[in-house]
């Protein structure tokens, strides 16, 4: 109970901060902006465009002031060009996560967190941060054995701030979804929940350490990559110790060339390693921007910052392989079928229309030269198609698209004439050969083979039992036709109602014929006629009730 009250108290504090920042940047016109976003007019004036740009700039400044949770959510939304106007996407991409470093007593903090004597493990620690972000700041150090390492220190209290922000943001999105159809249409709830899960994983250094260890195992023995090493004995959920990587950003063509490395070969290695993550491991870097990919002087590729990774199940990986194959070979019909299997939710009004739209998209690829082809624009058009058809994909697909766009951008810087489709084709051939490999077929279908073996083992017994029943004339075959049975029951009910209607009509007519007979009468009509009228009325009421009950 106390924990719930504390979370609500923290949420109220963050709500007060939110209102303060919104007031500061003048968001009285926010409702009008949301309402106007339901329909855009292509004939907007230059004045309106300028006003919109100023509005989006205020959004960006407010987000930066609100802190890490909002900044990271804005950075997540910057990849969703299918959901937001281009000027707002531009502002989202300007969001900076660089903040002033906290002054901390590094030695005292390490000894308290890790329950160690620092001098037993470290020969040097530089107390000037290498980098400072909203969640953590990093320091360079050297172990007693001479190995250089990075110490990543989580900011104090950041977890409570993020949790409070997430609670508040969830409430805000729920309210917006209730009042504005545009918020429901862009599935902002789904986008937010995926973001919240990813951010909480990034907050956990224990999770990041596990990712580093998994990444290292996956690439063990691969010559073109330098994987980071984690130090579990010097790490916990607030402190992470990892090996230091000496290198330069992968898009720094000048330094790569100065090291006598071929940028195109470096790029080939980078693409190969990223595609291996996607199609072989199903465990890939969620944010492969140039700052997170280094090239060493020896030409090896190093992927940094594994706090956020995307994971795929074997089934997800197989569907992704299918999708890539059908995309490369322009099979729109099978693409639509695979999309439905991959989707979390799909409400496609017309599969034929979606198929035609995908065919048009594939034609764009064919009709444009490599220099004209914009992968980013291509994926944006594809995302719009999914939105228009109410198709929600799992988060790893959006992260995959983001990763491919980032990798393609790196490729353009190192080798402007890069053909990303040609880079993928060898993997398609590899997938195809793996699919028909006898060993792979045996592994994938071992359960099916086991079931066939079991059926074959029990088949003689079942067949013998069948013949025994035939010889003993005890075999009984029941044939049930549901449609015929339903028709029979409906006919019986109809006949019953018809009989009741006939009885009521006959009784009523009889009453009319006997109305003038010389008997005791009431209101000029004989009593026997009144009785017959009453009976016919009761029969009609019963018939109507029965009919109503049947219809209900």
TrEMBL record:
GO terms for molecular function: kinase activity. Coiled coil: none annotated. Keywords: Kinase, Membrane, Transferase, Transmembrane, Transmembrane helix. SUPFAM superfamilies: Protein kinase-like (PK-like). Residues 95-336 form the ABC1 atypical kinase-like domain. Signal peptide: none annotated. The chain crosses the membrane at residues 522-545. Belongs to the protein kinase superfamily. ADCK protein kinase family. This is AarF/ABC1/UbiB kinase family protein. The lineage of its organism: Bacteria, Pseudomonadati, Bacteroidota, Sphingobacteriia, Sphingobacteriales.
């Amino acid at each position: 109970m106390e924990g719930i009250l504390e979370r609500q108290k923290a949420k109220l504090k963050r709500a007060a901060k939110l209102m303060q920042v919104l007031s500061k940047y003048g968001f009285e016109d926010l409702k009008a902006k949301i309402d106007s976003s339901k329909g855009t007019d292509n004939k907007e004036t230059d004045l309106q465009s300028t006003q919109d740009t100023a509005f989006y700039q205020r959004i960006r400044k407010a987000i930066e002031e609100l802190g890490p949770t909002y900044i990271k959510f804005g950075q997540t939304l910057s990849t969703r060009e299918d959901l937001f106007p281009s000027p707002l996407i531009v502002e989202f991409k300007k969001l900076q996560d660089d903040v002033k470093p906290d002054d901390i007593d590094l030695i005292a903090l390490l000894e308290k967190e890790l329950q160690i004597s620092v001098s037993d493990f470290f020969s040097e620690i530089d107390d000037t941060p290498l980098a400072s972000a909203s969640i953590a700041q990093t320091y360079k150090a050297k172990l007693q054995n001479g190995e250089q390492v990075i110490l990543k220190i989580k900011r104090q209290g950041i977890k409570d701030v993020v949790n409070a922000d997430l609670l508040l943001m969830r409430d805000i999105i729920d309210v917006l979804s209730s009042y504005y159809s545009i918020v429901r249409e862009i599935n902002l709830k789904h986008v937010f929940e995926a973001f919240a899960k990813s951010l909480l994983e990034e907050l956990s250094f224990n999770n990041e350490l596990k990712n580093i260890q998994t990444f290292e195992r996956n690439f063990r023995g691969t010559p073109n990559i330098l994987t980071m090493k984690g130090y579990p004995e010097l790490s916990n959920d607030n402190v992470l110790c990892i090996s230091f990587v000496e290198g330069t950003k992968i898009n720094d063509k000048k330094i790569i060339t100065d090291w006598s490395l071929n940028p195109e070969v470096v790029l080939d290695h980078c693409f190969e390693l990223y595609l291996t993550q996607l199609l072989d491991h199903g465990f890939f870097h969620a944010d492969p921007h140039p700052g997170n990919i280094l090239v060493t002087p020896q030409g090896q590729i190093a992927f940094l910052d594994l706090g956020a990774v995307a994971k795929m199940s074997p089934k997800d990986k197989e569907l992704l392989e299918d999708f890539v194959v059908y995309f490369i070979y322009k099979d729109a019909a099978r693409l639509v079928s695979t999309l439905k299997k991959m989707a979390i939710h799909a409400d496609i009004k017309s599969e034929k229309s979606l198929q035609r739209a995908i065919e048009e998209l594939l034609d764009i690829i064919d009709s444009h030269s490599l220099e004209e082809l914009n992968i980013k624009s291509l994926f944006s058009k594809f995302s719009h198609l999914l939105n228009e058809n109410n198709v929600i994909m799992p988060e790893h697909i959006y992260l995959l698209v983001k990763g491919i766009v980032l990798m393609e951008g790196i490729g353009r810087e190192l080798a402007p004439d890069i053909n990303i489709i040609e880079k993928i084709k060898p993997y398609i051939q590899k997938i195809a050969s793996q699919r028909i490999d006898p060993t792979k077929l045996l592994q994938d279908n071992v359960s099916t083979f086991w079931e066939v073996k079991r059926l074959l083992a029990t088949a003689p017994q079942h067949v013998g039992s069948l013949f025994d029943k035939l010889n003993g004339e005890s075999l009984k075959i029941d044939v049930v036709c549901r449609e015929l049975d339903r028709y029979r029951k409906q006919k019986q009910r109809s006949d019953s109602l018809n009989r009741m209607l006939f009885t009521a009509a006959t009784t009523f007519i009889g009453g009319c014929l006997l109305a003038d007979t010389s008997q005791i009468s009431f209101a000029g009509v004989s009593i026997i006629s009144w009785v017959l009228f009453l009976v016919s009325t009761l029969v009609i009421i019963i018939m109507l009730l029965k009919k109503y009950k049947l219809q209900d």
